[in-house]
Every structure is written in structure tokens, then in C-alpha cells.
Amino acid sequence: MKTIKNITIAVLLSFSTFTFSDVVEVFTWKANPGKDAELIQAFREAAEIHEKEGAVVAIEAMNVGETQGTYQYVLRWDNAIEWGKSKDKINTSPEWVAFGQKYAPGSLGEMVSSLSGGNLDTSVKASDFSDPFVYSVNVWDPSPGKTQELISNFMMAKSIIEETGARVEIYSEGTGGTGKFHYVLLYENWTKMGESFAALGSSEEWAAFQASTAQGNSGTLVGSHSGQVIN
Q1: What is the mean pLDDT of residues 164-169?
Q2: What gap in Å lies between CA 228 and CA 71, rounded to an integer?
Q3: For residues 196 and 157, is the Cβ–Cβ distance under 8 A?
Q4: DSSP string of 91-110?
Q5: pLDDT(223) > 90
């Protein structure tokens, strides 16, 4: 019964965040040897089409946590309604037919994963990500029965981290995911990120927060990576 309850909570959380908040789709690509520049150019051409169809697009070069030549093509919409309208346009667009004829599948790289998500903050819009940024992501898997506790810890950490100059966004996985959460720190540049990390390292408030949650076992850190927007 606990398992069924946990699945129900996850489904309801995913439904609510996808309906009312910033919706994201992330496509991770590995460039073929020597094809990085051509793959990025193809992304930029695709972005022009997607943006005509209502999406906000970010092309991200992944850094620590992934191998060289790995990129993320990220689409965002204000909410599930705008996401649906955009997807319908994609399915009937002659521009995508021409794009597919220009770039044969696998000629520039391989898509290694795809994932959708919803922002836990319903006030956030896709346009809030229109400026370039660098980012660091921690991926958390909630312990059984501890999802709400994990989210509560996320929110407490958010207030402390944002005092150091970060912008924090938290996403719940949707299609392609397994119920994990992505804790995303955004900065204007790498220098700002370094200053924020240094400030956290010397923060008594941050140390106290970590000590207070150390025994809670509300979730497990299962992955992390960083990168920057290049479009």
C-alpha cells in the first residue's frame, strides 16, 4: 500500500506542476567526432522553428559531469496548454519536413536521452530563461514516503542559496523520468557561481541546515552536472 501511495503522490505532483508551471523538455545529444560545430548549427536552425511555434529554446554545452561533445537542447513553455499548442504545430509544420531532409538521422550526432519536467514554482515562465546563464544541477531520488520532506528541504535550502547570488529552480520529472527531482542553480557566469559556492562554504546558516537534515534520509543524490547556454 505504501508503494501505491507513493506512486499516487508522484503522479499528482507531476500533473499539478505540468498543468500550471513552466514545462521543459530536455534532449541530450552526443556529437559525432568532428561534428560539434555542425550539430550546434543544426540546433540553431531547429531553434528558429521551435520558437516560431511558441517554445523558448536553450542550447547548452555540458561541462563537468558529462563527456566532451555533449549538449542539451532544451525547450520551455509557460504551461501545459502552451506546450500542447506548440506540439500540434510541430506535427503539421512543413519546415520540419525540410529540416529532416537536410539533416539525415545520425549524421551529426546521437540523442542519448530525453526527459520532460515541470517547475515546482508556478510563477515561473519560459521567458524567464531567455538570457544566457551557466548552471549546476543536482538530481535527487526521494526516499519512499519522503517526497514531501525532500521538497521541504529543497525550499529551505533555496532561501539560503539564493542569498549567495544564485537563482534556484526545482523540477519534478515527467515523461522519460522515474520520479526524481532536479535541483538547478543558475548564475550569470562562472565567476558568480564560484563566489556563491565560496559563500556557502563559509556560511554558518548553510552548515546548520546540512547538519539538521543529515539524518533525515529524505532522498539520495544520484547525479550532477554543470554547463552553460551557448545560443
Answers
A1: 97
A2: 10
A3: no
A4: HT-HHHHHHHHHS-TTSSEE
A5: yes
The x, y and z cell numbers of residue 134, run together, are 551557466
Farthest-apart Cα atoms in the chain, separation? 57
User: pLDDT per residue over 119-150, tens digit each?
Assistant: 999 899 999 998 889 999 999 999 999 999 99
Cα end-to-end distance, the chain, whole Å = 47
Least confident of 64-78, 147-161, 166-180: 64-78
Q: Which of 169, 144, 184 is nearest to 10 (CA)?
A: 144
Q: What is the DSSP letter of 30?
A: E
State the Cα–Cα distance between residues 9 and 226, nearest whole angstrom.
29
The pLDDT assigned to 192 comes to 98
Antiparallel, parallel or unpaired: β 219-229 and 23-31: unpaired
Distances (CA, A) of 120 to 53, 102, 179, 180: 24, 38, 13, 13
- Residue 111 carries which side chain, given as an amino acid letter? M
Rounded to 5°, the CA angle 130-18-43 comes to: 40
| Whether residue 2 has pLDDT greater than 80 | no
The letter for the amino acid at 93 is S
Q: What is the spatial distance between Cα 221 and Cα 223, in angstroms, rounded to a whole number?
A: 6
52 and 91 in contact (C-beta within 8 Å)? no
β-sheet bridge partners, residue 57: 75
